[in-house]
Amino acid sequence: MSDFQVEVRVVPREGILDPQGKAVAGALKSLGFAGVDHVHVGRLVTLSLSAASPEDAADAAVAMCRQLLANPVTEDFDVRILEAAGS
Amino acid sequence: MSDFQVEVRVVPREGILDPQGKAVAGALKSLGFAGVDHVHVGRLVTLSLSAASPEDAADAAVAMCRQLLANPVTEDFDVRILEAAGS
Known about the structure:
2 copies of one chain form a homodimer. Chain A has 87 residues and is an alpha+beta fold. Chain A has a single domain, classed as 2-Layer Sandwich (Mth169, Chain: A), CATH 3.30.1280. Helices cover 32% and strands 44% of the residues of chain A. Chain A has 2 helices and 3 strands, in the order βαβαβ. The first copy, chain A, has helices spanning 19-30, 54-69; strands at 2-12, 36-51, 75-85. Chain A has a 3-stranded antiparallel sheet. The termini of chain A are close together. β2 of chain A pairs antiparallel with β2 (36-51) of chain B.
């Protein structure tokens, strides 16, 4: 078993209303930032995970997204296995 | 002027209590995921930005973090300029 550093990116699904992104875009414009567009706010979940292989770590992380980390109706997720650290 | 794709990662500062990370770690354990540790939940802000150069885009993004996107007391941020698209 190795420890894997896992990064999960959860983002609003393309085409679904993103009120938080719209709010941030409006606030940035109010603060004087010009030329800003397509603002989206998602979540970045990092964790360490003990698994037998990078593939097992990725499978576990995808299961975590399906069961807890992402809203399957409105969000997309992307799992990245960054590194293994020791045994 | 070019359009740059900017990715801002906002994460809880190391050593500061991260209640959302702790809650997610507890929920993952309750769901039966073993070997999970060091769970942290941050924000991932993506936007497109019109700027004269990648350096200008990065400077603007850092200013956005200081003024709006990150809490300077409890959070760290990291700005990545991903690509330029057209003029």
